[in-house]
Design goal:
five-stranded antiparallel beta sheet; elongated; alpha+beta; single chain; 12% strand
């Protein structure tokens, strides 16, 4: 558990460093800026920044081997050959409209590894542009609303068919939609779409021009948030928690960091501040090892503001909690009679059916009156005067459960719960079917 936590922090640090460079005006390639999102969900899988670039190298080389004449082809022909290959190898597009908002479709590293089409238009264009660059074709993302296109730029002095231009002629551009097709998209069709959207003609060039890398990062972050919002209402913990990849918590965390570091108005001191509460909630509940990243990268963004003091207070609280001695809860005769379950026991919730492991207990409900009222504790058959347990749930949440809702009948431990248990436990004892406690300073008799 802790090696995975530290490895995750290493990956996230590298990702954040890329976005900090971009914020500071340093050159960062589109592929690296987008591959930074993958680092938040990577764990020990393939797909770090260098591996993503290596995969794009391999794709470009495969195209070159399949089309030996490509180096001599015109810009338009090159664009068509590249788009055709990417579609044929399922590196662009999505399998079906129903899968459009799948979370994995917003990660360039996953799109390059998937056996199915798993790339939103933005990711499809990013792959197209990265491969084009490796094959000597200038291509950039276009800032079109709702659907990203690629702009292919002819070399200076040449048109898109490779013919010489007359002196003083404007550089020629064509548009490609590698998400859908290997065919060229006419500028007039795009202008007609903009007009249908109600966008004034004077604004068309802004939407048909080259989009910045920072804008592509922001749009990717919003795509991730949209994907999470579209699936959470059908989330079934018993089905998805074991197999979900990328995990939604890490994905949302990546989007929050991106929007914090690269807000629309980079000059405003408070830009990105509205994402702070959500980010800090993630850090406190799941990414405590990242407290140093908050200190190094987030705190300086809000110099002299109350947001900076909020961040510093959070850092102080977390570090003080690490140093604070724990309350010791031995089991005397009275406690043993009233607290039936022990730290390390795995259970299933009788009402909500999730699996969890007990990490602590109280002889009776120790929550605030407001919480007990909200949760209807006094409506339970045994009310508030029964043991309550702190539990770690397979979906990473931490909950407080009444004893009457705990079913400890024999069950297999889920893979997801096993991966989380190292936060509190040394190992799983397959004979006694309990986790061996790593918190005996608090519960010496458990």
């Amino acid at each position: 558990y802790y090696s995975d936590a530290v490895l995750g922090a290493v990956h996230r640090t590298r990702a954040i460093e890329e976005w900090v460079k971009l914020r500071g005006g340093q050159p960062v390639s589109l592929e690296r800026a987008l591959a930074a999102f993958d680092q938040f969900v990577l764990h020990d899988r393939d797909g770090d920044l260098e591996e993503t670039s290596a995969r794009l190298d391999h794709v470009a080389e495969s195209i070159r081997l399949q089309n030996p004449e490509i180096s001599e082809a015109s810009p338009q022909k090159k664009a068509e050959l590249i788009a055709e290959y990417l579609l044929s190898q399922k590196l662009t597009g999505v399998e079906a409209d129903s899968q459009y908002h799948n979370l994995q479709n917003s990660f360039i590293g996953l799109a390059l590894q998937s056996n199915e089409r798993a790339a939103l238009p933005l990711i499809s264009v990013a792959i197209f542009c990265a491969v084009s660059e490796r094959l000597g074709l200038a291509a950039e993302p276009c800032g079109f609303p709702f659907h990203i296109y690629a702009i292919v730029i002819a070399p200076e002095g040449r048109d898109v068919d490779g013919r010489p231009l007359q002196d003083g002629s404007e550089t020629q551009r064509i548009y490609v939609d590698p998400f859908r097709s290997d065919k060229i998209v006419s500028k007039s069709d795009l202008e007609a779409q903009l007009k249908a959207m109600g966008i004034a003609s004077i604004e068309h060039e802004a939407h048909l021009g080259i989009a910045s890398t920072a804008d592509m990062v922001r749009r990717t972050a919003r795509n991730i948030i949209t994907a999470i919002q579209s699936t959470r209402h059908i989330h079934d913990i018993s089905i998805s928690v074991e197999t979900a990849y990328p995990e939604s918590d890490g994905a949302l965390y990546s989007a929050l960091w991106a929007l914090l570091l690269l807000p629309e108005d980079n000059a405003a001191r408070s830009a990105g501040a509205r994402y702070l509460p959500y980010m800090l909630d993630h850090v406190e509940k799941q990414f405590l090892v990242d407290i140093s990243l908050i200190e190094i990268f987030a705190t300086p963004l809000f110099e002299g503001s109350h947001h900076q003091e909020q961040l510093r207070n959070t850092i102080r609280v977390v570090r003080a909690g690490d140093l604070m001695p724990k309350t010791v809860k031995p089991r005397d005769r009275e406690t043993s009679q009233s607290v039936h379950f022990k730290v390390g026991q795995v259970f299933r919730h009788r009402r909500y059916n999730y699996q969890g492991v007990i990490t602590g207990w109280d002889v009776e409900c120790a929550a605030a009156e407001s919480w007990m009222s909200q949760m209807g504790v006094d409506r339970l058959s045994r009310g508030r005067h029964q043991s309550f347990y702190n539990v770690l749930v397979e979906d990473k949440s931490v909950r407080y459960v009444a004893e009457e809702n705990i079913d400890d009948s024999s069950l297999d431990v889920s893979t997801s719960l096993m991966s989380l248990a190292g936060r509190h436990f040394k190992r799983w004892d397959n004979t006694s079917k309990v986790f061996i406690s790593n918190i005996r300073d608090e519960y010496p008799d458990d």
